[in-house]
Every structure is written in structure tokens, then in C-alpha cells.
Amino acid sequence: MANRTAKDAHTIHGSNPQFLIEKIIRTRIHESKFWKEECFALTAEAIVDKAMMLDHVGGVFGGNFKPSNFLCLVLKMLQIQPDKDIVIEFIKNEDFKYVRVLGALYLRLVGSSNDCYKYLEPLLSDYRKLKFLGRDGKFTIRHVDEFIDDLLRHERMCDCILPRIQDRHTMELSGELEPRMSLVDEDEEDEELPVPAPAPAPAAAIASPTAASPDPWAVDWDASAAAGPATPRTKSTAPPRPTKAASPAPAAKQDSAPATPRTPSTPALPFSPTTPTPATAAPTATPRAATFGRRMPSTEAVSSAVPAASASTPAPAPA
């Protein structure tokens, strides 16, 4: 009984208003604690107090699709179906932003295309922040104008399938809506001020412009015409520059005696050829033992050295 739609409720888009929310999400809402404790026996007047206690916006979150308090109140409004005037007061409320957003989502679900554009487009100038609860259970920051723009453009919002509305351009062509004037265009019109027309010039200045504005570079054409044609300027010829006299060539020297050919000089030696050259010290032979490796004598050298040693040694006398 507590989950049934009110008896005096009207069908929305040809069906039960609660059917605008999917079956699985609607079942999760009916099983939630907030729905059983806070939304039981709520009326159109009492739902305002619950809406003022909202602190975030969102649909379902978590692995088991737990519904948010905002979505529970949306379903409760679909169930009791408050009057249109109450919903419009929700939208016009400027003190509580979550009450305004709640009324905007409900009007987008049940309202006509004309009502959606008429009452939701003025909210595009509301730039207050909203706490949006995502599917992962984390909060993100959004703004009221973003939320309203998504309601008018997207097909799904807060896990609710939004009914289709007519395109605004089509409604403007049919004359159902007036062309929308953005705030930027209104500000530009306010800034455009009428440009004052320039003041007319005095008659004396028009009659004699040279007298009105004396200019040292101005030319009196009437006086120049009476003086006659101007004398053409001729190019002045400067006197020729004096040329430098050429200096006479130097006279050649007359040598009294013929030049003697020069013979190459012999370089001086450090010592006289007759002086004996100092004896150079003979290089000392490095002993064989001091060398790194000793060279072994050959076999023929050893055999020739043995008989020589025996011949030089006298034989022992017999006893």
C-alpha cells in the first residue's frame, strides 16, 4: 500500500508516473532504509522539509545499486504527484539549491516540451556548486547550470531515463517559442550606447577655411597665380676642383765605380781544421750477465774448448 501511486494521480506519457524509473532501481528504492523511515506517508507539503535537508545530488551507487536520498525523493514526488504550482515554487526557490534541482528533475520527467524550456532555461544563469554522487560512491563538484543543461540535452540523468522533448529549433520555427536571448547578448546590447552626432561647423569657417585654422604651411593659391609662373630652378655649376700636380720622377743614381759582385760568405766553424778533434769516449760494453737473457754457447764451441784446456794443464806425475 505504501508503494502504490496516489489514486488521484494522472497518467504521465500514457503510463503510471512511477514507471518512469526502471524496475530494478524502483525495487532498490522501496527496499532502502531512507524510503521506509523518511518517505513514509509524506504529503506534498511535508516533502519540502525533506528536500531542504538534502546535501547532494545523485542516482544509485555502489555494487548493489544503493539509491541516494535525492533519488528516493524523486520517486516519492512521482508517487504523490504534487500540483504544478508547488513544482514551480521548487524551481523558483533561490535559497536552497537542492530543492531547485529536485523540482527541475521532476518537471523534466513529467512536463511538456514547452514547460521544460520555459521554466528550466532561466536556471542556466545559476552558477552555484553541487555535490554530485557518482556510481563509485565518490563526490564530484558540478554546477546548477551544468545540471540543467544536461537535463535539456541528454537522455539519462541520475539513472533516470528522460522522456524525449521536441527540439528547440523546431519549436522556434513553428512559433511555439521565441528565440532565446543569452545573457552575453543582453550585456552587449546594454553596452552599446548611442553615438552623438557631430556638431555642425560655423558658417565663417566654411566660407574661409584658411582664416578659421591658420596653418603656417598653408599656400595662398590666389596670390601665387597672380605672381605668374614660377621660375624653373637651374642646376648650379660648381667650379672645377683643382687637380694635384704630378711629382717628377726621381733621377737615377750615377755610380762612380762599377758594382762588385758579392760572393757567398763561408760559415765560421767552431774549430780549426788543423785542430785535432776531441776524442769521443768509446761506448762501454754491457756485460752479458746484465742483459735480460743469456745466450747459450753452441756445441762446437764447447767441444773446441775442452781439448785446449787439457793441453794446457800438465799431467800428474806418477807415484
Summary tags:
single chain, 319 residues, mainly alpha, three-stranded mixed beta sheet, two-stranded antiparallel ribbon, elongated
DSSP strand content: 5-15%
Terminal CA distance: 160 Å
Helix residue percentage:
25-40%
Query: Any idea what the shape is?
Result: elongated
Which regions have little confidence, pLDDT < 50, spanning 5+ residues? none
Radius of gyration: 61 Å
Q: SSE layout and pairings?
A:
Elements: H1 23-31, H2 33-37, H3 47-52, E1 57-58, E2 60-61, E3 66-67, H4 69-80, H5 84-92, H6 97-110, H7 113-120, E4 129-133, E5 139-143, H8 144-153, E6 156-157, E7 160-161, H9 168-174, H10 183-191, H11 203-207, H12 209-212, H13 221-227, H14 299-312
Parallel strand pairs: 1-4
Antiparallel strand pairs: 2-3, 4-5, 6-7
Helix pairs in contact: 5-6, 6-8
Question: In words, what does this structure look like?
Answer:
By secondary structure, the chain is mostly helical. Helices cover 37% and strands 6% of the residues. The protein has 14 helices and seven strands. Strand 2 (60-61) and strand 3 form a beta hairpin. Helix 5 (84-92) packs across helix 6 (97-110) and helix 6 (97-110) packs parallel to helix 8. The longest helix is centred in the N-terminal third of the chain and has 14 residues, at 97-110. The N and C termini lie far apart (160 Å).
